[in-house]
Amino acid sequence: SAKAAGTGVRVFGNDVDRDDAPGRLSLVSQLGSAIEAGELTVHYQPITDVRRGMTDRLEALVRWEHPTLGRIGPSDFVPMAEQTDLIGPLTARVIDEALRDCAGWIRDGHDVGVAINVSARVLHDLRFPVVLADAARLAQLPPSAITLEITENSVLREPGRAARVLAELRALGVRVSVDDFGTGFSSLSSLRDLPLDELKIDRRFVGAILEDTDDEIIVRTVVALASQMGLSTVAEGAETSAIADRLLELGCDVLQGFHLARPMPALAVGEWLTNRPRVVVLDPAPVGLSP
Ligand code: C2E
Ligand code: MG
Ligand code: MG
Ligand code: MG
């Protein structure tokens, strides 16, 4: 995800060979018109409470269906959108589509919500709560069906202002989750002062929990911290059944990852929710988290 000043470097140089730089440059210049032309689509990945066997919500993940380059993933254009004013229209586009899609699933009888990734600029926009409330009204979706995923770093620019925006969002009934938790620069005191509902453990800690005891300790500690603070936990990157089982043992019940489902186009979601696979829990007893 976007790491502020670092992203320009990553997009224009660094891991990209020099010959590719002009291509990247023209990609930036195409993004504005691509948003207007409707080339952005939203895919959805289920976030499932495995113990209850329920899909709680789906995360909206943007893709760019480029007319000549094919599908481009968000890591290749969201960071550069965040460096410009384009993140505003991009986010508005994702919100409109995601709220309408979610309202449709609920109308079809599914008890699900939607999670939306929100960047720093948007989080510091004092108009954002009203814009989101309007979008929800238009889509006929209760705001309580919406979770916003923010990163630790996204509140750092002006923490007071971001906290005010978050408080207004939560007053609407929106839930707030800290994405990529543990990879940013927030302090525990700034976390304590923010109105939050959930910590989302980044998949770089999850991927190796079976082999790496340090990562396992991190997951265990985040789960304990969240529970002490009255927050819930989600783990992303539950790629295999073995990882999912271990996460359950560590006290993390709500999972997202390729083992449960990959991101899918909106049209596939209804069928997936109807025929959602039964998740087999091998060891239903959580291990004790106390020392
Ligand atoms: P994120 O919010 O942390 O989203 C989770 C990413 O992990 C997604 O990548 C998802 O496809 C991937 N993932 C989920 N489960 C697994 C797994 O089991 N294994 C592996 N290897 N990967 C898994 P994606 O869709 O490429 O998105 C990358 C990032 O782009 C997101 O990370 C988020 O930071 C950003 N992003 C995506 N859509 C939006 C958007 O609409 N707005 C903003 N501001 N950022 C977005
Ligand atoms: Mg996310
Ligand atoms: Mg994440
Ligand atoms: Mg992540």
TrEMBL record:
Source species: Euzebya pacifica
Domain of life: Bacteria
Taxonomic placement: Bacteria, Bacillati, Actinomycetota, Nitriliruptoria, Euzebyales
Domain EAL, chain residue ranges per copy: 24-277
The protein's name: Diguanylate cyclase/phosphodiesterase (GGDEF & EAL domains) with PAS/PAC sensor(S)
